[in-house]
Known about the structure:
Oligomer: single chain
Distance between the termini: 25 Å
CATH architecture: Orthogonal Bundle
Order of helices and strands: HHHHHHHH
Number of strands: 0
Amino acid sequence: MIRKIAVSGMIAALYAVLTIALAPISFGPVQFRIAEALTLLPFFMPEAIPGLFIGCFLSNIAGGLGLIDIIIGSAATLSAAWLTYRMPGIWLAAVPPVVINALAVGPYLGIITDTPVIYSVIYIGISQAVICFGLGIPLCMLLASRTEIFDREVLAKKKLKKWVTVNKKSNS
């Protein structure tokens, strides 16, 4: 349990630091939030869900776009993270962050930044797709194949056997 809380905290911190450090490209109607690559982590580990929510919440406080961004943006991340966890495959796991952020974040960003809403939805959708499919999937597959952070039995259930070997515990 302590390990899961620590991992969740590290994900929250990493998300917030990446977003705030790259603030010029992380906020606004046209954004490229590199930290969104982490939104694929719930597929492998449910403890990433609260970490992403907290990281996004903290980032949106620092972002300066107001209460609507803090509440709706963070809720969108929470929803997308939970759906990502429920997806049957890694490629489908990248879909919830793309669709939910485009449809939830895009409209209010368009309104508060005086950008046509349809453009804002499209911009957010494209940037999310590039980040989730182009960075998030490769990052997660690399982590799954090279680290012990993920539960190997969970990975095996997710049918990622060509990247991971499950070591069964002996009863001796």
